[in-house]
Design brief:
- Its main location: nucleus.
- This protein is α+β, with helices and mostly antiparallel strands.
- It has a domain of 154 residues.
- Helix content is 29%, strand content 28%.
- It contains 14 helices and 28 strands.
- Strands 1, 2, 26, 27 and 28 form a five-stranded antiparallel β-sheet that branches. A four-stranded antiparallel β-sheet has the order 3-4-5-6, with no helix packed on it. A four-stranded antiparallel β-sheet has the order 7-8-9-10, with no helix packed on it.
- The N and C termini lie far apart (88 Å).
Length: 595
């Protein structure tokens, strides 16, 4: 399970285009930010403070990276210079290595081996070999002069190191190149074209000795193309899913964060701001998302030390993420509409066809639920998204439909609906309780008449609210999870709920008796100190009333307990000794005087 944490600003930027890139630092909690053409700063994630910085008179043309092999920082200057330095050095005083051919960047090897040099012509070699042959002219070029490199990654397949990168030409056509670092080994290239749609995002991933190219197209289709060690027959490869969480009209930045997760950063589907999502490739659902108010083109996204870094406006934003063990609860209600159902003739009458939850949804919720379900939201998340709008509109019918349809109702939603039902504007619930109390003083035959009269006096809206209260009280919940939410409910609302629950103990309702007792215990525990410190007569009256009802229930149980021995004897076929007249015979004869 992947989850995004709270985003925070790491550092300001000159502008989005001047940011050359970020890189992994020697210290795990730090990141190297090449802010501009002359400035490099190391930041610490924990406190967002600057650790060290460098500046140069010459122009940087590649991001600064850290080489584990020689414990030095390196970067390309003016497209034809390579410099390597330590933390204490000054950039203008370190040695400059002049190259005959233009350079693109330095690719570090995080495994500790030597770094690699990627030339602008697409040629790849080790750092050591590049320094030895820096004054020579390259003959085996991969790219044309008009082509330029977009993304690159170092992958390892069956012990062989390769550099995979994508290039673009004057017509904005994308080509995937796979170049081995071994001199003389053949390279491969694949043209990234498909039908009449345009490419809006792509990413490279190395997974279990295999390499994949993920492509996102302007119709929202996400494909996976395997190019190592074997090559898929048809491009763009295997169709994964439709991505609707990002706007496919604008470019999207994609980067892998694990073997089964991709991060997407692009324009929001509502065309308001930007969005960052984490997509689970195994279950094909969006597991976490974060919205930003501003979308900057082109989108920039990096993955460094369990942090996703995005450029938003003139700021570099850091978003921590966590990868945990997948839990089945996060998948409940996400793929119900795509599960195939096979009907058997001998069970045809008992089979209920599985239908999507939005099929019979109210008109005002149908479109939103359908969109959330297509994006892979579980039932709990869907309810959390639609509940605020329902409560704002005071739509009781929609609330009843949600409680009837959704099998996974979060505890937070349960408390929010209770607050809505027992707000000050819903005085009819208290009137209903008073009517129930008055019925206890009447006879059994008059009680039904009184109840019918009371029900007729309530309007349709109040009757629906009454059903809503009983429905929400009947929902299953975890007392540990619901207690923090109950403590935040106003005390006046809690008193109304307590008064209503005490009435339910005395009279029959659709709420199970055990559930009523559970709610009473929770309501008393959540505001225990306020009950003790309160001197309000209303509080004392409610607690006294509840105490009397509990004592009455206990007395009833004591009376039933006295009958237990007699019931056991009758169950075992034994005749009680008190019934002496029936103790010596199995029958009796009585004479009745009729006239």
């Amino acid at each position: 399970m992947a989850k995004l944490s709270v985003a925070y600003g790491l550092c300001p930027l000159i502008d989005n285009n001047s940011l050359l890139g970020v890189g992994v630092d020697a210290v795990p909690d730090c990141v190297i930010v090449t802010i501009g053409k002359n400035i490099v700063i190391r930041y610490k994630f924990q406190d967002q403070k600057q650790v060290s910085s460098w500046s140069s008179k010459d122009k940087l043309t590649s991001p600064v990276v850290y080489n584990v092999n020689n414990s030095q920082y390196s970067a390309v200057f003016n497209h034809d210079q390579l410099r390597m330095w330590s933390e204490e050095d000054q950039l203008d005083k370190v040695k400059k290595y002049k190259f005959q051919e233009p350079l693109h960047c330095v690719i570090p090897d995080l495994d500790g081996d030597t770094a690699f040099i990627l030339y602008r012509c697409g040629y790849v070699t080790t750092l050591t070999q590049a320094l030895e042959t820096r004054k020579s002219t390259l003959s085996n070029t991969v790219l044309k002069n008009s082509d330029y490199i977009k993304e690159h990654t170092l992958v390892s397949c069956n012990g062989v190191k390769l550099v995979a990168f994508t290039s673009s030409n004057e017509k904005d056509e994308i080509t995937l190149h796979v170049v081995p670092v071994i001199t003389g080994a053949p390279s491969a290239q694949y043209h990234v074209l498909w039908n009449n749609v345009s490419l809006i995002g792509h990413a490279l991933m190395a997974k279990e000795n295999s390499c994949f190219l993920f492509t996102l197209w302007s119709d929202g289709s996400l494909f996976s193309f395997k190019f190592l060690p074997t090559v898929d027959i048809n491009f763009p490869g295997t169709f994964l899913q439709k991505v609707t969480s990002v706007n496919s009209k604008h470019p999207v930045a994609i980067t892998p964060i694990s073997n089964s997760h991709l991060a997407f950063f692009g324009a929001d589907s509502s065309e308001e701001g930007a969005t960052l999502i984490l997509l689970n490739l195994e279950f094909q659902l969006v597991q976490s998302r974060l919205h930003f108010k501003l979308y900057t083109k082109p989108p920039r996204l990096w993955n460094v030390s369990s942090h996703l870094l995005v450029a938003v406006g003139n700021n570099l934003i850091a978003v921590p993420y966590h990868l945990e063990v997948e839990q089945l609860s996060t998948l409940v209600g996400t793929h119900s509409s795509t599960v195939p159902v096979t009907e058997s003739s001998w069970m045809n009458s008992n089979i209920k066809k599985l239908e999507p939850i939005d099929k019979h949804a109210p008109k005002n919720l149908c479109q939103k639920i359908k969109l959330l379900r297509q994006e892979g939201f579980p039932q709990a998340s869907i309810l959390l998204n639609i509940l605020p709008d329902i409560l704002e509109e005071k739509d009781v019918k929609s609330l009843l439909w949600c409680l009837k349809t959704f099998s996974d109702v979060p505890e937070r939603c349960v408390v929010q609906i209770l607050k809505f039902c027992f707000s000050k504007s819903d005085a009819f619930l208290n009137k209903k309780s008073e009517n129930i109390v008055k019925e206890t003083t009447e006879k059994e035959n008059m009680k039904n008449i009184s109840k019918q009269t009371t029900d007729q006096s309530l309007n349709c809206h109040e009757s629906e609210k009454q059903l809503l209260v009983d429905a929400i009280l009947s929902v299953s919940f975890s007392d540990v999870c619901i207690m923090p939410h109950l403590r935040g409910v106003p005390f006046t609302t809690i008193l109304s709920l307590l008064n209503y629950l005490s009435d339910l103990m005395e009279h029959e309702s659709t709420v199970p008796p055990l559930r009523v007792i559970e709610w009473l215990c929770l309501v008393l525990d959540s505001h225990y100190q306020k009950y003790l410190l309160s001197h309000n007569e209303e509080v004392l009256s409610i607690l006294t009333k509840l105490s009397e009802e509990v004592n009455s229930q206990i007395e009833g149980l004591e009376e039933l307990k006295k009958l237990t021995p007699l019931l056991h004897k009758l169950q075992n076929g034994k005749i009680p000794s008190k019934l002496s007249e029936m103790s010596d015979r199995k029958y009796s004869i009585e004479t009745l005087q009729l006239y």
